[in-house]
């Protein structure tokens, strides 16, 4: 049996998965705030509960909001800062007395959708998270792609390509990003980035879902904000297609719920992809918010 753990900033979700991808047990507990040792203990308790409900010992995979640095073996790039600098995988292996597989949460999302979701059967899948932040993961022939820096697929802190000047303003240099640069893709394509752009253009503050709803009901300012978002997403994804040429791009995160993206972005990305035609498919996620925890379980093969 496989157990997947999704370690988030506010909650730890656990799932036990059968060999054929069925959910056997699931639970969710709050993440102990800012306390590394308590976080380890909470993960261990979730595994114990899943095993007791399922009646079997589990192979454990864990998705985290960050990654293990291949050079140091310690966590980096985590927005749950209490994890940074710890060897979470080794600490959990000691606590759980078994090997543990650990991956970035965007890689888990991509792996879940590639295994038995929107990218099932495709050789190459790019999972693009459009949420509070913008991240991504690459899966090739069923395996998440790793590298010497453990950042494969992290397109969110590349600059927004082919910057434009819109009637209300220039995309250059672009908004300041927490990474220290300006004009990162994340500053335009995250949910907060979308809301910020709408506020800058209209002087009106609104949540992303309210801007989408207003655009659908005919508000022209909101429709123009969504239009800019679609144009930027097409440009951003075109750079990923030029490098990785995935069969399927799956969107995740809150902005993946915007239905118009799936028609309009593929209609436009051909303007920037270096090809006479683009056969890449853009798809909505099948497993929704469960993809992270499912992908963590899929870090182990079905027979584990
Ligand atoms: Zn950045």
Brief account:
With 304 residues, the chain is of the alpha/beta class. It contains nine helices and 14 strands.
Blueprint (SSEs and pairs):
Blueprint: E1 2-7, E2 11-17, E3 23-30, H1 36-54, E4 59-64, E5 67-68, E6 75-76, H2 88-96, E7 100-104, H3 105-116, E8 124-130, E9 134-140, E10 143-144, E11 165-166, E12 169-170, H4 185-189, H5 191-202, H6 208-216, H7 220-244, E13 248-252, H8 261-269, E14 281-283, H9 291-297
Parallel strand pairs: 1-4, 4-7, 8-13, 13-14
Antiparallel strand pairs: 1-2, 2-3, 5-6, 8-9, 9-10, 11-12
Bound molecules: zinc ion.
Zinc ion (ZN) binds next to loops.
Give keywords.
single chain, 304 residues, alpha/beta, 5-stranded mixed sheet, 14 strands, globular, binds zinc ion
